[in-house]
Amino acid sequence: MSNITLYRVNNACSLVPHILLRELQIPSTPVRLVLGSDGPYAVDGSLSSSDYKQVNPKGQVPTLVVDGSVVTEIPAILTCIADMAGDRKLLGSTPMEKVRVYEWMTWLSGTMHGWAWGSVLRPARFVGGAEEMYETVRETGREKVKECFERIESKMDGNFAVGNQLTTVDFYLYIFWRWGNKHGYEVNEKYPKWKKLMMQVEKMDSVRKALKDEDEPVLFASNL
Questions:
Q1: Tally of CB atoms within 10 A around 205
Q2: CA of residue 93 relative to chain centroid, distance
Q3: What is the pLDDT of residues 94-136, one digit of tens each?
Q4: What does 183-220 look like in DSSP terms, one character per residue?
Q5: DSSP character for 122?
Q6: Which one-letter DSSP state was computed for residue 86?
Q7: Residue 176, SS3 per DSSP
Q8: Strands annotated E in 43-194
Q9: String of b and e for 182-197 (b: at least 16 CB within 10 Å)?
Q10: Would 14 disulfide with which of 8, 170, 182, 198, CB 3.0-4.6 Å?
């Protein structure tokens, strides 16, 4: 059995691999980080920001370490975990479904997370220390988030994001639903098809356990 460590931050995108590890019942060692001015560090003091950069020189979260091999970037991390239980076909059941899963994951990672939410939450990434530009960057990001949310809703043609069964995409979509809810995007009112899928995802034991671990509430009253 592989020796697996997941470095994560509560209610960050690292919730997605956290859920997936639980869903597949893959034993792992969690290292909870918090975001400091010099980068992420372990909440229990066991790892400084400089220590973490020795693990992941990018200084970003999450990081997955499998038998000493470091994996970064959500699409790669989810692929690595899903491949540990290939019989579940969480990366798609057919060649075209696999293509669609990667199409979704790269778009969510790059456009949705890196560009749209990055602009809203981390404007300095785009304009450095030019603080007078921050609100302009944030507003551009907010509009891009809305555009992305509308695209997700338009793509919800069935019970799942890809094909007729659960994939990594359904878990990945969940974190952005949570962020949209937190930041006032009226997701419950505006995106009914996406909401239906997210309600089903949140009912899963793996999701509920991961949320409990991260001290995060469920979002749907019917799931209480």
A1: 9
A2: 22
A3: 999 999 999 999 999 999 999 999 999 999 999 999 999 999 9
A4: TT--HHHH-HHHHHHHHHHHTSHHHHHHHHHTT---S-
A5: -
A6: G
A7: helix
A8: 63-66, 69-72
A9: eeebebbeebeebbeb
A10: 8
Helix (H, G, I), strand (E, B) or coil at 8: strand
Quick: pLDDT tens for 28-66. 999 999 999 999 999 999 999 999 999 999 999 999 999
Please give the share of the chain, as a percent, with pLDDT higher than 90: 96
Question: CB-side exposure of 1: number of CA atoms within 13 Å?
Answer: 6
Residue in the structure block whose two tokens are 């785009």: 126
Round to whole Å and give the CA distance between 188 and 196: 9
Residue with tokens 């899903």: 82
Contact at 8 Å (CB) between 162 and 92? Answer: yes
What is the dihedral sign for C-alpha 123, 127, 130, 135? negative
Q: Name the token pair of 143.
A: 């509009």
Beta strand 4-9 with 29-36 is: parallel
Tell whether pTM > 0.85. yes
**CB atoms near residue 157 (< 10 Å):** 8
Q: E-strand spans in the chain? A: 4-9, 29-36, 39-42, 63-66, 69-72
Around 213, how many Cα atoms within 13 Å sit in the side-chain half-sphere? 21
Between CA 179 and CA 117 the distance in angstroms is 9
Q: Rounded CA gap, 167 and 135, in Å?
A: 36
